[in-house]
Design goal:
Layout: E1 3-14, E2 23-34, E3 38-42, H1 49-56, E4 64-69, E5 72-73, H2 78-82, E6 85-88, H3 100-110, H4 117-126, H5 142-154, E7 160-164, H6 172-187, E8 191-195, H7 199-205, E9 208-213, E10 216-222, H8 223-230, E11 233-239, H9 248-251, E12 255-258, E13 263-268, H10 274-288, E14 293-300, H11 303-313
Parallel strand pairs: 3-8, 3-9, 6-7, 7-8
Antiparallel strand pairs: 1-2, 1-4, 4-5, 9-10, 11-13, 11-14, 12-13
Helix pairs in contact: 3-4, 3-5
Protein name: ABC transporter ATP-binding protein
Domain ABC transporter: 5-239
GO molecular function, one term: ATP binding
Length: 319
């Protein structure tokens, strides 16, 4: 894998002030991102996602650790590296009296890219902003202002793009436009790092997923491999008659009785289909032992289930 971004031991500590204790926003974080991949970084509020992005984009000075981007050390060539990075921040921030088209053109020049009205037009059209090019930003709706932020990040044709909660609080139409835009950027070889609270976005778009909590990266893995390794299958058999206990062969198959013996619960598998095979075998064994069931409900772990489990149980859950 051609590594675009290599983070090693990245730590950010804020000292104690005004009686408040010291805070460790990043705790020896390691992360390597390959060229052209879409990487989703998931974590609860305050986990360190935005701090990590800020460190790479030069907005936060790390306490320790190294950041290598495009094969160069951020400490020695920050300006050259930053020109190749785009950032869509969480917060809306721009000159609200500026016109949309001029704002995008200015952002392109800010990163040293030559004037290119055609490129600006392409970016505006891709985000349905072309008709608003002469409108002052202050007159736009919240969703349109979010589109302007995205356009500004794309104006200088970044090779590495950070999307920090890009669809938080926006309408469904913009969210879908964002998904289409990310697909287009993938085709051009742009590397994208996405933070999101919408785990279905990560499940839909990401090649790999990382989970961060309390400044520590708990797990990084290919999405499919993560689902296979940490996913689980659950089944609930509603029994026609309550049981006092299960026959030993059935009890040995990750099966337990609940609700006074009227429901048999199974939890097992590994996200690769093994669970469904075991459920079929369990159903066969119930019939073999003359245990009648009247309903069967089966569910597979989602990426959200894995995320919640890791955050609640910490790094040990990944082992």
């Amino acid at each position: 894998m051609d590594i675009v971004l290599d983070i090693r031991g990245l730590t950010k500590q804020y000292p104690a002030r005004g009686g408040a204790p010291a805070v460790t926003a990043l705790d020896h974080a390691d992360l390597a991102i390959g060229k052209g991949e879409i990487f989703a970084l998931l974590g609860p509020n305050g986990a360190g996602k935005t701090t990590l992005i800020g460190a790479v984009c030069g907005l936060v000075r790390p306490t320790s650790g190294t950041i290598m981007a495009f094969g160069k050390d951020m400490r020695h060539d920050w300006r050259g590296i930053r020109r190749r990075i785009g950032l869509v921040p969480q917060e809306l921030g721009f000159d609200i009296f500026e016109k949309v088209g001029r704002s995008i053109a200015f952002s392109r020049g800010l990163f040293g890219a030559p004037a290119d009205p055609g490129r600006v037009e392409t970016v505006l059209r891709s985000l349905q902003l072309w008709d608003k090019r002469d409108a002052q930003i202050r007159t736009l709706s919240g969703g349109m202002k979010r589109r302007v932020l995205i356009a500004k990040a794309l104006a200088h044709d970044p090779e590495l793009l950070f999307l920090d909660e890009p669809t938080a609080g926006v309408d469904v139409e913009l969210r879908r436009d964002m998904w289409r835009l990310i697909d287009t950027l993938r085709d051009t070889g742009t590397t994208i790092i996405l933070t999101t609270h919408y785990i279905e976005e990560a499940e839909e778009m990401a090649d790999r997923v990382g989970i961060i909590d309390k400044g520590r990266i708990l797990l990084v893995d290919d999405k499919a491999a993560m689902m296979a390794r940490l996913g689980r299958t659950e089944a609930r058999f509603t029994l026609a008659e309550p049981l006092a206990m299960l026959p030993p062969p059935i009890a040995a198959m990750n099966a337990t009785l609940t609700q006074g013996g009227s429901v048999l619960c199974y939890r097992g598998g590994d996200g690769s289909g093994k669970g469904k095979q075991e459920i079929a075998e369990l159903a066969r064994m119930l019939v073999e032992h003359d245990i009648v069931f009247t309903a069967l409900d089966v569910s597979e772990s989602s990426l959200e289930d894995i995320f919640v489990n890791l955050v609640e149980n910490g790094a040990g859950a990944a082992r």
